[in-house]
């Protein structure tokens, strides 16, 4: 485990690579990756009690996230799946639970996001995500682990992507401004997660000792 507490959030539009970045942070720095979508699936399936649960959103662009009491004493990286917090209401809700040390914002060009999202297919039961361009399933159209069919979400279809990205931009702007005003926002731009990651790793290495080298990740 990390020897120092660090509470970080990764922000970014749909398809920006939040999940990949969070997973790498968790491995490299011994942090717990809190994926809101994963928490909900596991706790609803297992019948566990979620200690704190809220829903916040703007119009039809809301999301649901789960937060557990150990957040107040744990190191974590919060992001991916629902992309929490993606609205000002969610950011203020998170403030009531803990104080963030670091916010990482992923800035990916619109055309890159459009291509990524349009090529994305998911396994509904598990939430596993595949990209037909750079992370395809072993067998076309089916999940690697279960062999069950993959589906393309309605909001990942090309005609829905542009509106989805516009909604994110409008909702996320005040969130980004909030964290920028606190001096904890760090923005990274690029078209490939592998090229952005070394800069994220360097930033975090200045805040908390890594448990893996960049080459080991």
TrEMBL record:
Q: Tell me any Pfam family this protein matches.
A: ADK
Which domain of life does the UniProt lineage start with?
Eukaryota
Task: Quote the Gene3D superfamilies the UniProt record gives.
Answer: P-loop containing nucleotide triphosphate hydrolases (3.40.50.300)
Q: Sorted alphabetically, which InterPro entries does this protein's record hold?
A: Adenylat/UMP-CMP_kin (IPR000850), Adenylate_kinase_lid-dom (IPR007862), P-loop_NTPase (IPR027417)
Keyword terms of this UniProt record:
Kinase, Nucleotide-binding, Transferase
Q: Tell me the leader sequence span.
A: none
Task: Describe the location of the Adenylate kinase active site lid domain by residue ranges.
Answer: 120-155
| Gene Ontology molecular function: any one | AMP kinase activity
Tell me the PANTHER family matching this sequence: NUCLEOTIDE KINASE (PTHR23359)
> What family is reported?
Belongs to the adenylate kinase family.
Put simply, this protein is called KAD4 kinase
């Amino acid at each position: 485990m990390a020897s120092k507490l660090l509470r970080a959030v990764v922000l970014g539009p749909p398809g920006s690579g939040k999940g990949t970045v969070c997973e790498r942070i968790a491995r490299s720095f011994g942090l717990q990756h809190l994926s809101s979508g994963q928490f909900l699936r596991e706790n609803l399936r297992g019948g566990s009690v979620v200690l704190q649960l809220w829903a916040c959103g703007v119009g039809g662009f809301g999301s649901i996230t789960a937060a557990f009491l150990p957040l107040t004493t744990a190191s974590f990286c919060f992001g991916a799946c629902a992309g929490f917090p993606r609205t000002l209401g969610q950011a203020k809700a998170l403030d009531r639970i803990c104080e963030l040390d670091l916010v990482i914002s992923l800035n990916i060009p619109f055309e890159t996001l459009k291509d990524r999202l349009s090529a994305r297919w998911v396994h509904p039961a598990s939430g596993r995500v595949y990209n037909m361009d750079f992370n395809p399933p072993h067998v076309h159209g089916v999940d690697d682990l279960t062999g069950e069919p993959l589906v393309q979400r309605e909001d990942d279809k090309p005609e829905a992507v542009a509106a989805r990205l516009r909604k994110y931009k409008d909702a996320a702007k005040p969130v980004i401004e909030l964290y920028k005003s606190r001096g904890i926002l760090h923005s990274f731009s690029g078209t490939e997660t592998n090229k952005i990651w070394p800069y994220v790793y360097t930033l975090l290495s200045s805040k908390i000792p890594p448990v893996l080298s960049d080459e080991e990740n």
